[in-house]
Amino acid sequence: MTITSAMPKAKERKKRTRTKRVSSLPAIKLSQLPPSHIDLRQPLKAVLVCEHCKTWCPITGMQGKVQKLVPHHTGKADVADAVRCRGSNRLVQFDMTIPQWRQALTDAVKGASSRQATAVLPKAFSPQTDRTLRARAERTLVGRVADWDAVLPRVADADKNRRAVPAGDAPTEGPAVPLTTLHPKRPER
Question: For the whole model, what pTM was predicted?
């Protein structure tokens, strides 16, 4: 297709966002952010994580007097309606230098690497635990049945004492306490 003078031409867009608007929220201090949420490797293209929408946002005005986050939207592109993030145009206060940031970042990496999980080794058994486990493994079905048979008379005595009505006057108010277990039946459909 050939280009003629009658064809429309796209208007040139601004390279950078330039606005005098400033967010009413307090300025973001770099020293209060985790070093891993800041990227100052290329100082003229510095970026940081927005506190509100948790996305990486460039800082505009790096060569000017006022540094602030560029206006940005929450959510993913082409998924939902464009909603302006509350952190847009928020001032950024550089209260640390690039070497200080690099040092804080290396310290954070060292701290994170020391927290890495290690192989979990099984705990050694104490002699008492070892004896208990061996005795449990050596028990047979006949031995367990004999243990239950030895306990059954005491269980029956406890149940009989629980069912017994205490001596003395019956309560004056309220219905009598049922001594049998009630089993409600569901209505048929």
Answer: 0.50
